[in-house]
Design brief:
The protein is α+β, with helices and mostly antiparallel strands and about 140 residues long. It is globular and about 45 Å long. The termini are far apart.
Length: about 140
């Protein structure tokens, strides 16, 4: 059994297709969605990953999993349809790791030294999420 998934940013659709499961980090915690999930709306955690499992169209490669870094947004579930609406997102399979590392370095440089206990700026956290989506844990 599958659900229809659409990952959409303001400038257009990033990915859509059928999948078995979606896992997303929301402000209320991790949410796993399968076929038949009751309707829900959740606010996505800033600079987090959305995992789309057992993708049917081959876009996920051998793993059968798409990982997307999302800057912020929300998701909606209704009638076996999952809409993930984000301000910005990148599919891990499309990330050029060296360019993403350079973007992280630039964001860290621009942020400067953070006071202890102060969270990193969103751009730094999002750059780290993009690298995680690409499978780079550094």
């Amino acid at each position: 059994m599958t659900v229809r998934v659409a990952l959409v940013a303001p400038d257009g659709e990033i990915w859509s297709g059928m999948a078995r499961m979606v896992i997303a980090k929301t402000l209320d915690g991790d949410l796993g969605i399968l076929t038949g999930h009751p309707p829900v709306v959740g606010i996505l955690a800033d600079a987090s990953l959305v995992r789309i499992l057992d993708v049917e169209d081959g876009a996920a490669g051998d793993r059968g999993e798409l990982r997307a870094a999302v800057s912020s947004g929300f998701l909606s579930v209704a009638d076996d349809r999952i809409s993930i609406l984000v301000r910005e997102a990148e599919l891990g399979s499309r990330v050029e790791v060296s360019a993403a590392r350079a973007r992280l370095d630039a964001a860290l440089s621009e942020a400067g030294q953070q006071p202890p206990g102060e969270p990193e700026p969103l751009e730094v956290r999002y750059s780290r999420a993009v690298l995680r989506a690409a499978g780079d844990q550094s």
